[in-house]
Specification:
3 domains, Arc Repressor Mutant, subunit A, globular, alpha/beta, Conserved hypothetical protein from pyrococcus furiosus pfu- 392566-001, ParB domain, five-stranded mixed β-sheet, single chain
Length: 265
């Protein structure tokens, strides 16, 4: 089990992060930390040597893995020390740790989730191929696949993870970065972008910025339209079912276990 200890704020090196700092969140954290202190320590890893833009080469440094907003809030408050948990030196595991911490948060936009998930898959595959040795096509029972491992680490569903990977891999990185926080940063719009070639994606984004957007996907159905569409599908399935299947369905429908959303909660 990792031990918590205090470390000088000035000794912690912050490298390029997957997410830019949200200054509003830093301010909110600073207000909270001033009142109740730091509730969750930041995570760092030791490195023997690192080049930094500000201080040049450093030996025996502690590099931030998770907690950039907490560290920034501590600096805002003028704290000299901060609680840390020191992880191992494994760079790949540290990268996965940072990505998973971000993915476990609910405030990410669909484009950010796609970006992070695709990046996690890249790092995960590097770990799988570490040392030039690849795992066999058939995985041992104890070895989880990417989606299963990510679901366990982040609390997200496998279906959501696979969808995010597709978006992150199919949409050009510059396009994905440019749509974050815009009207195109929605699941249906991202899926439509993912079906286009990179040059077409850039054209769509450019047209959107010019005020003459290309219609990528239909707008989400309103509640009435959504209900009517669901009812139509149920009726179609009912009409296609055999008499035996209908009787079995009616026998099951009032059972609590029939509603799968209860077991998924």
């Amino acid at each position: 089990m990792h031990q918590i200890r205090n470390e000088s704020v000035s000794n912690i090196v912050v490298t390029e992060r997957l997410r830019a700092l949200d200054r509003a969140r830093v301010a909110a954290l600073a207000a909270s930390m001033k009142e109740i202190g730091l509730r969750t320590p930041i995570h760092v890893r030791p490195v023997e040597y690192i080049e930094t833009p500000e201080d040049g080469p450093l030996h025996g440094a502690l590099v931030l893995v998770a907690g950039a907003h907490r560290l920034a809030a501590a600096k805002t408050l003028g704290w000299q020390d901060i609680q840390i948990i020191e992880l191992g030196e494994d760079e790949i595991e540290s990268q996965l740790w940072e990505i998973d911490e971000n993915l476990a948060r609910s405030e990410l936009t669909p484009a950010e989730v796609a970006e992070h998930t695709a990046r996690r898959k890249q790092v995960w595959e590097r770990r799988q191929n570490l040392g030039g040795k690849t795992f066999p096509t058939k995985k041992p029972q104890h070895q989880k696949g990417f989606a299963a491992e990510t679901a366990e680490s982040t609390g997200r569903e496998k279906r959501t993870i696979n969808m995010a990977v597709r978006r992150g891999e199919k949409i050009a990185p510059d396009v994905l970065a440019s749509v974050k926080g815009t009207d195109l940063d929605r699941g249906t719009k991202l899926d439509a972008l993912a079906s286009l070639a990179p040059e077409q994606q850039r054209k769509v984004v450019a047209e959107h910025r010019s005020g003459k957007p290309t219609k990528l996907a239909p707008d989400p159905l309103n509640n009435f339209e959504s209900k009517e569409k669901q009812v139509a599908r149920l009726m179609s399935a009912w009409n296609a079912a055999s008499q035996e299947a209908r009787e079995d369905f009616l026998a099951r429908i009032d059972r609590p276990v029939f509603d799968n959303t209860q077991s998924a909660a």
